[in-house]
Amino acid sequence: MAEKSFRIIGKRGRQRGQLSNPQDVLFIRHPQSTLLVSDTINQNVQMFSLDSSICTGILTTTNPKTLPLRRPIGLSTTNEENSTCLVADYDQHCISRWQIDSENRCRLIKKFGQQNLLGPKGLCQSEETNRIVVADNKANSICLFDGDGTFLHRFGSRGAETHQLGGPHYVRFADKNDDRTIFVTDFYNNSVKLFDLERHGQLISCFGSLGNDKGLFQAPTGLAIDYHRGYLFVADWGNQRIQMFDRQGIFIRIIDLSSSLDTLYGPQGLDYDPFSQTLAVANSGKHCALLIHID
């Protein structure tokens, strides 16, 4: 069954409103309905209006002593009252916190993790405890920070065993109201893994293996969860598709965009908006973002 509707945001280029190898997407509802898109080649994070699809701002800093974003990848909301977001910068080995005002003006608040991270990609912050979980792709591990950015601990090691990691990409808390367990996409091990944070990263379960049949992966990347309906969305990078599972890892269906040839190519980060039932995709190979309505 093909999805009834989807929308393309952005196109290839180096100008404002254009993208080159986008890596992650993030819905922000306040102060305006906005989609953030991280762009590694253009070295920025752009803001697009969900109403008009027009670029309304760019995360940047005017402080000459502060390096701009170099290779931004993962994006996450925070639990602060003001509209803020977290950005994982792979090349600067850090996480930066940004504030966005009602005029879409951006201010860099702080950076953290430079002494602890080698190459961060996906990240998320708990609504319960404010803990921040980061997939340190280059270190093949998962790092935990408190809400202020203080390093807590890490777990994980490089390898092909079920409990090990091979290039972790993106992370999501398994439960919206409970931050004890975390899903991780394991890129080189072609699987999605569930870890227990309270037991220092003990493996709970794992699903997926190499292949192109339903439920199999060729290098999974992005993750998003519809917590209300219990859907887990996984970007299957090598197979050029997005698969839907329940939170036990049971395959449900493939998000089918076959009505438009070659629409999806190299999908990376995902985000899901429960209010509009919309899945956002960083469509890196096509240098754009996609908004897909999920029935």
Task: Please provide a brief summary of the model.
With 295 residues, the protein is mainly beta. The chain has one domain (6-293): 6 Propeller (Neuraminidase).
What is the rounded Rg?
A: 17 Å
Structural classification:
mainly beta
Strand order of the largest sheet: 1-26-25-24
What distance lies between the first and last C-alpha atoms, to the nearest angstrom?
A: 11 Å
- The CATH architecture would be 6 Propeller
Please characterize this protein's 3D structure.
With 295 residues, the protein is an all-beta fold. The protein has a single domain (6-293), classed as TolB, C-terminal domain (Neuraminidase, 6 Propeller), CATH 2.120.10.30. The protein is 0% helix and 51% strand. It contains no helices and 26 strands. It has strands spanning 6-9, 11-12, 18-19, 22-28, 34-39, 44-49, 55-59, 72-77, 84-89, 94-100, 106-112, 120-125, 132-136, 141-145, 151-155, 168-175, 178-186, 191-196, 202-207, 220-226, 231-236, 241-246, 251-255, 267-273, 278-283, 288-293. The chain has a four-stranded antiparallel sheet, with no helix packed on it. Strands 4-5-6-7 form a four-stranded antiparallel sheet, with no helix packed on it. Strands 8-9-10-11 form a four-stranded antiparallel sheet, with no helix packed on it. A hairpin with a 4-residue loop joins strand 9 (84-89) and strand 10 (94-100). It is globular. The termini are close together. The model has no long low-confidence stretch (mean pLDDT 92).
